[in-house]
Amino acid sequence: MSTIEGAGRLSGAGGGILDRERIIAKAGYNRWLVPPAALCIHLCIGMAYGFSVFWLPLSRAIGLSAPKVCADMTIFQELVTTSCDWRVASLGWMYTLFFVLLGASAALWGGWVERSGPRKAAFVSAICWCGGLVLGSIGVYTHQLWLLWLGSGVIGGIGLGLGYISPVSTLVKWFPDRRGMATGMAIMGFGGGAMIGAPLANMLVTYFKSATDVGVWQTFLAMGGIYFVFMMIGAFSYRLAPPNWRPDGWTPPEKANAYITAHQVHLRDAHKTRQFWLIWGVLCLNVSAGIGVIGMASPMLQEIFAGKLIGFPDLSFNQLSIEQKTAIAAIAAGFTGLLSLFNIAGRFFWASLSDHIGRKNTYYVFFLLGILLYAAAPTFASIGSKALFVAAFAVILSMYGGGFATVPAYLADIFGTQFVGAIHGRLLTAWATAGIIGPVVVNYIREAQIAAGVPRAQVYDFTMYILAGMLVLGLICNSLVRPLADKWFMKPEEVLALQAKGTTTMSGGSYGIDKGGLDARSAAFWAFVGIPLAWGVWITLQNAIKIF
Hints:
Elements: H1 2-11, H2 34-45, H3 55-58, H4 75-80, H5 88-91, H6 93-116, H7 118-142, H8 145-165, H9 168-174, H10 179-208, H11 216-235, H12 267-270, H13 274-305, H14 322-357, H15 359-382, H16 386-415, H17 420-427, H18 429-451, H19 461-479, H20 492-498, H21 520-544
Helix pairs in contact: 1-7, 2-10, 2-11, 2-21, 6-7, 6-8, 6-17, 6-18, 7-8, 7-11, 9-10, 9-17, 10-11, 10-14, 10-16, 10-21, 13-14, 13-15, 13-16, 13-18, 13-19, 14-15, 14-16, 14-21, 15-16, 15-19, 16-17
């Protein structure tokens, strides 16, 4: 909380450079400069998805060539030991810390983000995320696991939450004509962060490692510095739409969709509605199914197809040699990368499609198609079709990403745009919950199937049916979402009191700001974020082609 309060002091009582009043756009501004600003933030914090690239080198930080294992070491001893290497399972708790803290911080400080504006929120996010990397590097250097957890996990996780929700409300208000597409453009960056960050981290570790060091603490420092520059550029490029801004020449449809309200629901009331908790269930169940697959994508492909991946169709996983298992592990890494690519693409594709078919209908597609594909996956595996199996999970992961990108627009449709960022922050507790449910279901069912003697190629069949069942529940939740009753909406004078200073009308207008386009400045900004993203896509495709 002190970092957030510090940002408030930096702003100053008279209005500082971080205050929302300082970043309201003026006539002539191009709204297409806002999405790349959001991408600057999301491409950096999205590296949370790729942190697993550090686990193996960190697991031999002391032993160097091989882990120095200390038998019977408790987790409490592991937190402070300087003579034994850390276990990969203990390092993996960072992933849990990231997403639990992301959901918790987004829910806790979502209202503050809404009041303070995206620049201040992104500034604090950069301090937490990049400062967490610096503190984590000290933990690696001194070999203190608790410091790594605290720095990158806890403080970095708070930065994730603030950075993740910082552009949501802003983009929804800048693109009332394309809400889904706008949030899709920004949130796809979170999925793309690992595509850039993971190969960058590998390159840096290779550069910094030596005969006496695995090169991770230096990589943390370098990435912290790089990310800080990018995030500051993003934070100071944010601009807010003037109150009730509308694109020049655009008016809301006369016959508005019943699920798109023209009114506003206060943050204090949103969580009291049935609609909030139904959409919470929609997101939680969609994410639980998808995140369970993400966590087990590599071993799943290896165990199901085994020798078929390297031209030995008669060999099961347990019959493979160590060299053969190494070969199929490399192929499975390509599968994981391909899923990441579809996760990213789905965020933009499905969210943009939702502008045309509606958010509720988009989620109907997610659940109905997802149920079909999960139920069919065991059949694709039994007939030995790699192409159908990979295609099914590529589509599933596109809908997983699409669910994240579509939900902010869904919330704006139901609750209005005034508090959508803060409401979205509270809804992200569904993500934190799914981050526990999904992996637990997949991992424990897998272990139970193996213990029962089920062949490796079939241990995921029951899991697929369970995940399909989750989507059935999500389908039911989505079908129950209805427009809100009038009692939940704020009175016009209440909304006016909350608008930015300087407006005396509720009708709004274009304020001399048109729909914008790809001028020289916006083209340069898009290239600034697009070139690293294209590089990440190229690296991913090179690895993915090995599957076939």
